[in-house]
Amino acid sequence: MPGIEECLAEAMGITGALGVSLVDWTNGLAIGTAGQGPDGDHEVGAADATELARAVTQTPSFADPDSGAPPAEDVIVTSAGNYHLIRFVPAAFDANVFLYLRLDRDHANLAMARLRLAAIADRLVLT
């Protein structure tokens, strides 16, 4: 089973990946990082992504009331040069973590990146 560092390295192998962080959104801190953080700072990126993650998870409009699942699986934000992908990591225990992947918009395939990041998140749960 892969560990955190192996999962982050695998995420950096996604075409167009610029940087990735595993973030604890209870405190907004990056647990692990690889590549470049937004503006060179993973901690600022983790804090900013945490604000977005909290907004989504605490908004019932995004929930599927019949599924009993968390309100969102992932969040995608697009900007002029980047894609920002937040993937919540499902856990049997009460962990509140997500993967935050930044992608170069000119080189990334957003759909493929989303699928690969989901697979990485699922494997991360097993570690």
Explain the overall architecture.
The protein is α+β, with helices and mostly antiparallel strands. The protein has a single domain (4-124), classed as Beta-Lactamase, CATH 3.30.450.30. It is built from 3 helices and 5 strands. The chain has helices at residues 4-12, 42-57, 110-125; strands at residues 17-24, 29-35, 74-78, 82-88, 97-104. Strands 2-1-5-4-3 form a 5-stranded antiparallel beta sheet, sandwiched between helices. Strand 1 and strand 2 form a beta hairpin. The longest helix has 16 residues, at 42-57. The N and C termini lie close together (6 Å). The model has no long low-confidence stretch (mean pLDDT 87). This is Roadblock/LAMTOR2 domain-containing protein. It comes from Kitasatospora griseola.
Question: What would the CATH topology be?
Answer: Beta-Lactamase
Instruction: Describe the global form.
Output: globular
Q: Which percent band covers the strand fraction?
A: 25-35%
Low-confidence stretches: none
What's the Cα radius of gyration? 14 Å
Q: Tell me the domain tally.
A: 1
The biggest beta sheet reads:
5 strands, antiparallel
Q: What structural class is derived from the secondary structure elements?
A: alpha+beta
CATH superfamily: Dynein light chain 2a, cytoplasmic
CATH class descriptor name: Alpha Beta
Number of helices: 3
Mean pLDDT: 87
Say what oligomer this is. single chain
Proportion of residues in helical segments: 25-40%
Per CATH, which architecture? 2-Layer Sandwich
SSE order, one letter for each helix or strand: HEEHEEEH
The first-to-last residue Cα distance is: 6 Å
Q: Would you report the number of β strands?
A: 5
Q: How are the strands of the biggest sheet laid out side by side?
A: 2-1-5-4-3
